[in-house]
Amino acid sequence: MVLVADHASNVVPDDVDLGVPREVMSSHVALDIGVEGVAERLARRHGIPAQLATLSRLVIDLHREEDHPGLIPETSDGKLIVGNIGADRDHRVENYYRPYHDAMEQWLDKVQPRLIVSLHSFTSALATKPAEARPWEVALLYNRNAEPARHAIRLFAAQGLKVGDNEPYSGRDLNATMNRHAEAKGRDYLAIEVRNDQIANEAGQARWAALIADVAQRTLLALG
Asked: Keyword annotations for this protein (predicted)?
């Protein structure tokens, strides 16, 4: 079993000026809040090897296809990303996007994992859609390969959690990294979304690392 986290960081390289306020860089717009802490605990305490992105999704979104219009976002949840207007797309693809996915491909081809955990977090409310309810504490996303997600949905629900099924968005629409590195290679995966208020502090990160490790291991056993 291995883990990947495409949106674990809010780091911006020195040669990129996004032109956004500091508070934006600590929000869900710039990174998946809490994911780095959960992923590091899964790696160090639960023995699940991990590849974490070390780049903000505002520089380039590693969880989009290379030709996706939102690869270098000019707006995100109502925030204008001024420095991305007219950005050098080829430079960012060559220097950040391709090295990340090339490294992931080489790693996965070498270790041939039986299960990939793809870890993300989502905000409880979008600024642009404040009335849209997002009640799930955790959710599983999938495209064509739904079997691992079905096991995990059942296992998380057995813990008394409210579990989303392809929520708050569908893996049939946004599943770029797992489409490329899992589904295209016939690999099983769990694309897990945790609501970020659940993992905003160390206690929550430790709790969810233990929950995810348990559910992932039991999913692996169920897959046979």
From this structure: Hydrolase
